[in-house]
Amino acid sequence: MKGSLKLGTIGGIGIFVHWTFTLLIAFIIYINYRTGYNAMQIAWSVLFIVCVFVTVFLHELGHSFAAKSFNIKTKDITLLPIGGVSRLESLPEKPKEELIVTLAGPLVNIVLAFITGLFIDFPSTSEALAQELSAGVNASNFFLNFFIVNILLAVFNLIPAFPMDGGRILRAILSFKFERHVATKIAARIGQFLAMGFILLGFLYNPFLIFIGVFVIMGAQMESKYADSKYSLKGYRVRDVLMKQFTTIDAAEPIKTAIDLLLDSQSKIFLITENNEPVGTLNRDQIIVALSEEGENFLIHSAMNKSLIYLDVETLLEDVFELIYKNKSNLMLVMENNELVGTLDTENLLEFLLIKGVKSKKDYAN
Fold first, then answer.
1. Are the beta carbons of 116 and 146 closer than 8 angstroms?
2. Cβ atoms within 10 Å of 216's Cβ, excluding its own
3. Which residues of the chain form beta strands (DSSP E)?
4. Exposed e or buried b for every residue in 94-111, given b needs 16+ CB within 10 A?
5. Of 49, 68, 314, 359, whose CB is crowded by the most CB atoms within 10 A?
6. Cβ atoms of 281 and 332 closer than 8 Å
7. Residue ranges of the domains in the chain?
8. Which CATH class is domain 238-365?
9. What tens digit of pLDDT does each residue of 177-231 get?
10. What distance in Å separates the CA atoms of residue 271 and residue 229, rounded to the nearest whole number?
11. What is the pTM of this model?
């Protein structure tokens, strides 16, 4: 993720923190200062926030290690002010695997809360608890606050709404009985119903709940659409959607050549060759960046994407849908018997889905 600082690597997983995390720390310091806390109290608050994000990191690491047990690799984990994001190479689709991988995150929070609870003398009444927490984070209530945060994180993530873990757990349970796309749609609708409750409560009590509600509605919609699109490709192969006509440019040509082709055709991504062999791809965004930073005489070889993605012509589209979806701005090369027979990009796949959807509606109407 752009704007992220790499902290290190654990088990082959890159650990990053986004630069905006520093803004959160600055905000915490400012709020505590305005409240009238002294330097020691502010230091405890900052330490607590850092510990919370260590917890978020461990939550994501739980997902990653569980996924690893099913041979699913995690590219990296990035800590953001709003939480953590782990990028898995693929999502587990078998109900049992998805259930285990998804539960692993909240389970980490529950285990941390249990361990922390062993070292806490809990207040005997709710009034005493409120009194203990009212003074802000300090040495005497640090672990109590940490315990409460882990419980809240576990409960919040278990809410059955996408994109929280609870939505995926619900989808996994439903998938034991229904097709995955149907289970996704049911889970998404339940999540959106709950999101409307968040929005209503947000207007009445806390505006932040409105943000959560909108976030859940959008996340559920995207998840449902993704599952429907993938299901629509069931039974089709790469052969059915490949483009046999595609534009190639020699790597030794200047960016001006790519600009002329961009303006004179419908193509937005080009295959770059050297001695008639594929060596890279070049999309519209890369052309614009090269033009603005280096000028129109900049060589394509230095501007192209050298990471080529190959697909076999007989591969089922549902098996590579996630790969295609994650490489929206790339051109993929389709091979048959070690020979290039066509290309495929996301736009062509979306057009295929659009036409298929129209035909299905027409056939249903007839």
1. yes
2. 25
3. 4-10, 13-18, 74-80, 83-88, 248-250, 269-274, 277-283, 309-312, 332-336, 339-344
4. ebebbbbbbbbbbbbbbe
5. 49
6. no
7. 4-158, 173-232, 238-365
8. alpha beta
9. 998 889 989 998 998 898 898 899 888 887 878 888 888 888 888 888 888 888 8
10. 26
11. 0.74
